[in-house]
Amino acid sequence: MTSAGFGVVPLGIPGTPTPFTIRIPDADISQFSSLAKVGITGAPSFYNTRNVTDSPEYAFGVTRDWFSNTADYWANDFDWRSHEKYWNTFPQFTINVTAPSDGQIFNLHFAAMFSQREDAVPIILSHGWPSSWLDFIPMFELLTGKYTPDTLPYHIITPSIPDYGFSTRSDLTETELTYENAAEALNELMKALGFDAYIAHGGDVGSGITVALGANHEEVKAVHFNNFLLTQSEREALSDLPITPAENASFALAAQYMYSGLGYMFEQGTKPGALALVVESSPLAMLGWIGAIYAEYTDYSLDTILGQVSWYWYTKSYGRGLWSYRGVWQAFLRDRAGTLPSPLTITNKPLGYSWFPGEVLTIAKSWLDHWFPENLVQFSTHESGGHFAAFDDPAGFLADIEEFVTIVKDKVKF
């Protein structure tokens, strides 16, 4: 089953989505090739010749060998057009929406699987950083194999979240985006598609957006997460609650990440302007910043890693997407006094959570029981998978979403 039939927009919607095809200009690809081929790899050092696989204390980033070999492959063998062709087999659109709070016009890019069923439940899935809507393609593949447009029980919407990818806005250089702004724009997207009642899911940056959606917008009837963006004090407040052996192992992994893997967050949250100028100046700079994160924390193929890095390169969206880390940094620095909303505010809507053992932002079920005694309706655990859950374990992720919809449909009306 192909995904073509899932691109038929439901009749009578108030908005006007425009079909979208990814087609990076030849000149941009030629420029990338030239820049990638003239880039140089830095000199050997103590830090770039050691790997965390040799010893946990050597969590210095990717090695010089990995960087050099990957840069060579990216410049000479990676086929952007083949990735572009494959991604274009999934229905994509753009649509303009206006934010009620300040009048900003958002031009939002999104992929969609529309159902022809009148009782289909709308679901919006928001990605994080340094990923994109591409995380959800394995789930799209599963859905196209399982359903037809006439039987699909859901409308699945996966946007490039505001200021990421091909999603832009009118006040890009005039105002700093916040999680509340981003959520407002995505809520307007769903309303423009005719969805006045829907479910929201998010992870990483998408988790923060989903919190803002659930807390601020009545159209959101239920929320689902695979991680939370918590402050240190929020975590420490529950340190005495019981945890399972599996959770304990996950906390050990998370502790290592907190110790050696958060440097990028501080830099992106405090110096986004200067950092973006450097990262966006060269493909190799972007590889060393974004690609290295995937290389350190996943076992993805080079093509998968370079697909995500290339997405940021060709959409020129790395710098404008750093609003999300400004919000995270402010929350950590000021203990939630910044612009990142707390998930603990969502106490009046059904909430589901998917727990994956490789999650670096892990939590314990006892925490959820403490925070959401009345509205936690689903908690699912998995044997594998990590931070990029939808890509790591698409079958498990999809099963959780489908189970959550079944539970929620008995509690709220769509």
From TrEMBL:
Domain Epoxide hydrolase N-terminal as annotated: residue spans: 18-136
Which residues does the Swiss-Prot or TrEMBL record annotate as the active site? 204 (nucleophile), 325 (proton donor), 387 (proton acceptor)
Q: List, in alphabetical order, the Gene Ontology terms for molecular function in this entry.
A: epoxide hydrolase activity
User: What are the recorded Gene Ontology BP terms?
Assistant: epoxide metabolic process
Recorded hits in PANTHER family, A to Z, give: EPOXIDE HYDROLASE 1-RELATED, HYDROLASE, PUTATIVE (AFU_ORTHOLOGUE AFUA_3G08960)-RELATED
Q: Please, which domain of life does this record's source organism belong to?
A: Eukaryota
Q: What is this protein called?
A: Alpha/Beta hydrolase protein
Which family, according to the similarity comment?
A: Belongs to the peptidase S33 family.
InterPro entries the UniProt entry points to: AB_hydrolase_fold, Epox_hydrolase-like, Epoxide_hydro_N, Epoxide_hydrolase
Q: Where does this protein have coiled-coil stretches?
A: none
Q: Which organism does this record belong to?
A: Immersiella caudata
Q: Which UniProt keywords apply?
A: Hydrolase
